[in-house]
Structures
1.
Amino acid sequence: MPPILLLAAVLAVEEVSFVLVGSAALYLHGYLIPVADIDAVPAPDAGNLARLHAALAVLVRDGRVPSIRSLSAADVVSVRTSYGRLDCLLGRGRRDWDRLRDGARQVRVSDTGVMVASAATVTALRRSHKRTTR
């Protein structure tokens, strides 16, 4: 298992509610692809964003912890943690949290349950993202 996946387990242990998407989610569905970072869609409620902020205060190596205000307003926040890069897809959480959460399932990562979006959802998100970035 790629060490970066431990970051997802740490967030789950810290009671941050999120759904894993991107290459890490596909890897946990059995796809043999490289995993360079974690793409997490956090639940958009204030309590969850406060837990995310507290977890990042411990995990971010360079001290550049995003403010709670930026977690509440930004579309994407990227940080470098001691485990690797974390992309928090906050806008996606505000728009699609219920849909992503309903289609997700829990996968064990280092004895911790991590919510992972369905492979079909991840594939659709990746396809959509590639269309918008061209």
2.
Amino acid sequence: MAPAPQKIAETADRGGNRRSPASVNLKDNPAPISAKAVAALKDRIGGVVLTAADQGYNTARQVWNAMIDRRPAAIVRCADAEDVRIAVDFARDADALLAVRGGGHNIAGSAVCDGGVVIDLSAMKAVRVDPAALTVRVEPGVTLGELDRETQAFGLATPSGVNSTTGIAGLTLGGGFGWISRKFGLTIDNLISADVITADGRQIKASAKENADLFWALRGGGGNFGIVTSFAFRLHALGPQVMAGLIVYLLAQAPALIRRYREIAAAAPDELACWFVVRTAPPLPFLPKEVHGTGIVVFAACYAGPMDAAERAMRPLRAMGTPIADVVGPQPFCAWQSVLDPLLTPGARNYWKSHSFAGIEDGLIDVLADYAGRFPSAETELAFVQLGGAINRVAGDATAYPHRDVAFLINVHTRWRDPAEDAACIGWTRSLFEACTPFASGGTYVNFIPEDDTDGVKRAYLANGRRLAEIKAKFDPRNFVPRQPEHQAHSLKRRK
């Protein structure tokens, strides 16, 4: 799993005294982990333990966001749940910093830490589909593409994200939304149970009937409560073909098109999800060459239902104006799930900020148009996500994810290659985020919080933060999972 770095509870020291997470998440690295201890760990682990002296270490410590460059003392690539339990005990006994890795996509780089132990789950890849029961059991190293491939073999799917290389674990623990969430809910709304290794090394199950408070927290509370070694999800009939595709316009048309889009989105059936992306045109084969490198607005739509109904539902979107490209049509669901992969490859520097919105006000459209005219890099994009539908028919306190009253979310995804451009790119992103704030609902998505956003955790959990803090204190009173330095952790102290 790639847990978010947020720390959400006060903790207790070894004497039982209450204190803040900052006093546990040490500012300085703890004592080095001895080579003798690591050698003993290697003898107990069925998987692989890597240190800086081992071949493959540098590759294993790399994550999706190239801004993150950390050097753990040991990377424990677990083969099974027992390896995870042994690694947790080892890190706790060594009083070490702890990070947990699934897909390694977390924008803040929470999958790796300096000087501590990384529990790497990426080799735990089992997927077991039960088509009769409409369920699937998934280990935490599985990516979204791997999950889709197995479930689509039976014409089944569970809602997840939009980049096939994302890990299922980190996505799930933050909430999880994608093209079919308006029809079938968030990923967490389809979670049946989870097997968890707790901070004290116990193996327990969390479900509506067992450890129900932990199950509530896992559904949107991030990776703060233990290490999930297996997820069980509900499946739905879908595919193997869906109606989906892109409709592309020149950037100059964006304000008028977004105003029309908000009317169409308000009347859209649950089966239809349409996001829009504003960016510089990449050299895609279906775009005219003269458009490459210029500003565009792209409407990405998917219909989770029958093809004849999809044709009718898509008509208003396809009639908004005269596009420079319209590539909407029937295609395999797995192909659509990976359509954005070429734009989201690892190795680039990335910085994100996100807002939630109840609607799209004219003032917000003006802000987006203004900033889209001065992108700081060719790979930067504004991704505007349509939520609502089944997502919003769940109560805000039914799961840890509280944002059940918002209709849209923006991810300001700034992406570049040269470290010399860090200040300009990050500054532009923060400026746009502030300009959007007057039109926002006050919430944010926990999986989109960058490392330096010290208020992000409050916006992510809102009124659910207090209950999350209480559950954290119950299952991890020393704030151990994941235990990271103060500069890598945000704090939300429990209210008195």
3.
Amino acid sequence: MLELSNEYEVTDALKALPLWVRENEKIQREFSASDFASAIGFVNAVAILAEKLDHHPDILIYGWNKVRITLSTHSSGGLTALDFNLAKRIEALNFF
């Protein structure tokens, strides 16, 4: 089990991820694609990253072009460095 991030670590990590919002023991971000196919392509790219890290986000596809990514380390019961690492990698996709 990974060690939970403390409040200072969470606050500091979110400074580098300004579009991500903390929701209790999770972080999430909303993405808007230009069309449905782009939204699905983005989800597939996130899936590849998640598999490489063996860390799987909650992914919600809604509307015809919106994607919500929610990260938390379920086995640890909250936020860990792995969540922030995956969020940074998702940002680096520069998909939208």
